[in-house]
Each structure stands twice: as C-alpha cells, then as structure tokens.
C-alpha cells in the first residue's frame, strides 16, 4: 500500500484515476463484444468459446500494459508505472470488469452464432 510520504511526493488525483478506470472499462466492454462476434462467427461452443474470451481479455490486458503503462514507467524511471495510473493496478488492469463484461460477450456470441448457423 502507499504510505503518507509517497502520497506527499506523488499525490493521487482522483479525477485522473476515475477517468483511467472508465477508459479501461470502455475498452474492455468494446473488446468483449468484438470477441463475442468473433466466437459466434467461428462457431465456437461451450468451453472453447469461454477460453476464447479469457484468452482475448488476457491479450487486451497485455497490450494495454505493454503499449501504455510500460513505456511510461521507463520514461519516469519508476519500478511500477501502473501505480501512476490506477488505484489498484492488479485488479484494475488485469482482472477489471472481466466477469461483468462476460454478459456482453455471451450476448453477442449467441447472436452471431445464431445468425451464422441459422
């Protein structure tokens, strides 16, 4: 956890943290729907479809970390750049809304599966 001295040196701006969390949530919701479209068009059923979603969310989280967080941590010289952008970096960046966005995934998955297979 962040101690008082660290907060005095690098204060956490709640509006920025909230904006970053909202942006990440929007990206996850959009990609969950796109993964549902992909799984439906590919005709995936049951466990392979959910594995497709989990693999896709891991790839998206990795890309966000590699393209956004890692370059900033190298330029600022900090060990963990995710702490600069998120209140709980592990939960927000890697797990986030994965379970909540699964409903949108299943919705678009079944829609496009039905459209392609019917």
Automatic annotation (TrEMBL):
One GO term describing the cellular component: EMC complex
Pfam families xref list: EMC6
Alphabetical GO biological process terms: autophagosome assembly; protein folding in endoplasmic reticulum
Membrane topology term: Multi-pass membrane protein
Location in or out of the cell: Endoplasmic reticulum membrane
Domain of life: Eukaryota
TM region(s), chain numbering: 50-70, 91-116
Keyword field contains Endoplasmic reticulum: yes
Keyword Endoplasmic reticulum found: yes
Residue ranges that the Swiss-Prot or TrEMBL entry lists as coiled coil: none
Swiss-Prot/TrEMBL keywords: Endoplasmic reticulum, Membrane, Transmembrane, Transmembrane helix
Family: Belongs to the EMC6 family.
Protein name in UniProt: ER membrane protein complex subunit 6
Originating organism: Rhizodiscina lignyota
């Amino acid at each position: 956890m962040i101690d008082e001295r660290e907060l005095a040196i690098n204060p956490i701006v709640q509006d920025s943290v909230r904006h970053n969390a909202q942006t990440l949530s929007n990206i996850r919701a959009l990609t969950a729907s796109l993964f549902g479209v992909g799984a439906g068009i590919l005709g995936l059923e049951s466990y392979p479809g959910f594995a497709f979603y989990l693999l896709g969310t891991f790839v998206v989280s990795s890309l966000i970390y590699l393209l956004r967080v890692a370059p900033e941590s190298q330029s600022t010289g900090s060990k963990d750049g995710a702490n600069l952008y998120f209140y709980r970096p592990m939960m927000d960046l890697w797990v986030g809304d994965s379970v909540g966005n699964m409903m949108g995934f299943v919705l678009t998955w079944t829609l496009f599966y039905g459209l392609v297979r019917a």
